[in-house]
Amino acid sequence: MKFSKTKSYSILAAVVAVAGTVSAHRARVQPFGPEISHKEYLTTPETASFSAAGYYERESPVVASFFKGSAHDPKEAAIDFVKQHLTTSDFVVKNAYTSKHNGITHVYLRQLVDSLEVINGDINVNVDSDGNVISFGDSFYKGRGRRNPDEPLSIKEWVERETETLREQGRQLSFGSWRRGRGLIPRQRNSPKVPDQSSVISPQDALLSFARYLNVEVARPEDIDIVSTNSLHSDKVEVVMTNVPLTANGKVPVSQAYIQTEDGTLELVYDLQVQMKDTDNWFHVQVNANSGKVMQVVDWVSDATYNVFPMGTNDPAEGERKLVVDPEYPPASPLGWNRQAQNKNFTTTIGNNVYAGENRRNGRDWENNPRPEGKLDENGELVFDFKIDFDKDPATYVDAAVTNLFYWNNQIHDVFYHYGFDEVAGNFQENNFGRGGLGKDSVIANAQDGSGYNNANFATPPDGQHGQMRMYVWDVTEVPRDGDLESGIIIHEYAHGISTRLTGGPANSGCLGWGEAGGMGEGWGDFFATMFRQKKHHDYESVFDMGSYANGGQGIRRFPYSTSMTTNPETFKIMDGPAYWGVHAKGEVWAGMLYEVYRNLNLRLPFTDDWYTEDKLKYANTLVLQIVVDGMKLQPCTPSFIQARDAIIQAEKILTKGKYRCDIWKAFSKRGLGPKAKVIGANSPFGSIRTESYELPSTCEK
Q: Which class for 671: exposed (0-12), middle (13-18), buried (19 or more C-beta within 10 A)?
């Protein structure tokens, strides 16, 4: 198969410089494609172009149908309808699924012309539980097939026919590479003739045309090869360009297809998937196979903007909401927050890390919880921006609440990924990207959950099963308040998932159930919530309540978190008393100790607003977060305060060789958990006997 020679371009290091519009993580490239004039979407039979005899009326006077099919196989009903009333063209079923809450089956078809897909030729058919077609969309090409028998074969056809010929001869098609100027794979003498394709540019030239469209220069384009491989899932041969310096893995999958143009014709195109190396863009692009013109561009990575109370603003009493653009941390969420896989994008509060939705009805079918729909702005960016009137019931601003809940679940996921709560550690993700651990376990986050008031909770099963967060409305004020708007509560709940998965390993969810272990499960949540409220102006004298917004201005703990023994007098032995037998009370003591650790570190190290800094050991807040997370991994199942303390000290030693060891000891000793502290019955759900220790190790100066 012959292709034209590659056009020459400047040979420089591959960089992205898209007309000066590169953001922090994505190049701003406006998606585009042909506008198809005959595209239609019909929801009532009266607007259909075929005769009334072709469809049936339902018994219901409200809903009519285009077609009466089998209730036992709605997919077949859809296919029968398409064949009988819409097209004689070939097609392939790309997807078919049923929505559980309403029983509607959605069937998605892609048009085939001369065995090639038509990129913008789609039909979707919606079938009810009785087998009735209730609506459909159609953008199939309406003309005749593009090619006559004498026109050239496509790459796909040539390779597949070659494979079939060799299979009949009892031989396999060998893996091989294809450079411009020689055949795709060495042809056998008796294989089908491949006509001359001198008018068709090479796949490499198509890629370089797209690179020029992006204003990207490619180093050594002559090194780009084409490799054919057998698919693991079928007999088809997959064709991939390799040695591509633009892409993250050096590869670009390539195929041929047709695209409908605005003037009603079909054009042969190369279909390319280009995951950029230097930006977060993942382009799906079609380039004219004759002229090299870029015909259509789609970026599988969507931008998003969320109107929320961002990092550093705990609740409405502390500050205003802000429109936060693309807040994801790419190593943790490489596809962004509204996408789970290559072709699985969402415009609601669904993503790889969390399904956030309203659950006022206290339903158990979380898949069907109502979710706000993001709107596309003039730049094609997804925007979640919903109004709040705090003088009205939370039900009136539930979309804003769900958005805030979605933002914070993702934010926590990404931040703690940076500190080691990743796939192998048992984090919460649908898609683990082949990085280990078990997927299919993103957080199910219910806003304004109808199962209770004035509280929140988080269920943490072992790795591979969904964590579930329930956030409630608080009715202690004249106008109820929504816990979804207080990030500290969200962080506290998510922290249960973190500490449970990290303590004892992700397969064991039973390590923090009661006693001091259960108390620390609560305390880590309060500590993390307090840490993410920190700002540069806060100091050793700063005081923080927990849950004060939702609770009408009064904190929900006995004492606020403070280094002052007057403001917060809790020490290790106070847990001997019956008032501290519960896990929440014990958690207050543990969180207070960890807050002392942070404040001591902050006396020596500055604070940074950048939680994703690579210099985590240079800042007090990032260092303390790291050693606390590391301590969870180090400590045993059902740890005591003493064991958890030792794990944190060990974690610090591993990181800094003990540079801040005595600062940490001073913090614990101040609250009675010094080196000689003891406990009998640490994880007894009832009474325990503790001996406090206020001294320091002999190697530390007072």
A: buried
Q: What count of Cα atoms within 13 Å lies in the side-chain half-sphere of residue 494?
A: 31
Residues 108 and 219 in one domain: no
pTM higher than the cut 0.70: no
- Clarify whether residues 498 and 520 are in a common domain: no
Q: Domain containing 557 — which CATH number?
A: 1.10.390.10
Residue 493 appears among annotated catalytic residues? yes
Q: Domain boundary at 506, 525, 546, which? A: 506
Q: Confirm whether 458 is domain-assigned.
A: yes
Q: 496 among the known binding-site residues?
A: yes
Nearest CA-CA partner of 93 in 67, 114, 117, 68: 117
Instruction: Answer yes or no: is 366 within a domain.
Output: yes
Number of domains making up the chain: 4
CB neighbours (10 Å) of residue 165? 16
pLDDT tens string 434-490: 998 889 999 999 999 888 888 888 888 888 988 989 899 999 899 999 999 888 999
State the catalytic residue, choosing from 493, 516, 588, 596: 493
With respect to residue 150, please indicate whether it lies within any of the assigned structural domains: no
Sequence-separated (6 or more) residues with CB below 8 Å from residue 554: 545, 548
492 is in an annotated binding site: yes
Question: Any known ligand binding at 695?
Answer: no
Q: Report whether 303 belongs to an annotated binding site.
A: yes
* Pairing mode of beta strands 40-42, 67-68: unpaired
State how beta strands 481-482 and 237-242 pair: unpaired
Query: What angle, 0 to 180 degrees and rounded to 10, lies between the N-to-C axes of helices 641-656 and 515-531?
Result: 50
Given its phi and psi angles, is residue 355 left (phi above 0), alpha (psi -120 to 50 degrees) or beta?
beta
Q: What are the Cα distances from residue 507, in Å, to 413, 522, 609, 635?
A: 19, 20, 34, 15
Per-residue pLDDT tens for 568-625?
999 999 999 999 988 889 999 999 999 999 999 999 999 999 999 999 999 999 999 9
* Structural domain that includes position 59: 40-138
> How many whole angstroms separate alpha carbon 352 and alpha carbon 329?
13
**Three-state SS letters, 57-97:** CCCCCCCCCCEECCCCCHHHHHHHHHHHHCCCCEEEEEEEE
